[in-house]
Design a protein that fits this description.
This protein is mainly α. It is about 85% helix and about 0% strand.
Length: about 130
């Protein structure tokens, strides 16, 4: 059981790092990101830059929440469930509105982590990581 808890924690950290990376790129390299990932012409990418930077801020909050939940020892299960569900919903929405690869990058890892949280984590804070 302890090994499964560690695997869950590691997976949540990886997902948090992915979101921190996405946030970094969206905040600091929005135009480049739009041009290379979504084939936006330069003038449109420049117009859309504030929107992408705003999305980056949201991704940074998700990253912070995931990392917080990964290392919280009081009662991490509700935090983990909340932030992983946020990632899953955002990933599904992104797959519908942006690119289907969002499911691979965001939704599937978060779904796996969520299943692990539900299956392996106890509800009592004494057994937390």
């Amino acid at each position: 059981m302890k090994l499964n808890l560690k695997i869950t924690q590691i997976l949540i950290v990886i997902i948090g790092i992915i979101h921190a990376g996405l946030a970094f790129v969206e905040i600091f390299f929005a135009v480049f990101f739009l041009q290379t990932r979504f084939d936006f012409p330069a003038e449109i990418a420049i117009q859309a830059e504030p929107i992408v930077k705003n999305a980056g801020i949201y991704n940074s909050f998700i990253a912070a929440g995931l990392l917080w939940s990964a290392f919280d020892t009081n009662n991490p299960k509700p935090l983990r469930i909340f932030f992983l569900v946020c990632v899953i919903i955002a990933g599904i929405f992104g797959a519908i509105t942006l690119k289907p690869t969002t499911l691979i990058i965001q939704t599937i890892p978060a779904l796996i982590a969520l299943v692990l949280v539900w299956k392996t984590e106890p509800d009592s804070p004494e057994s937390a990581l």
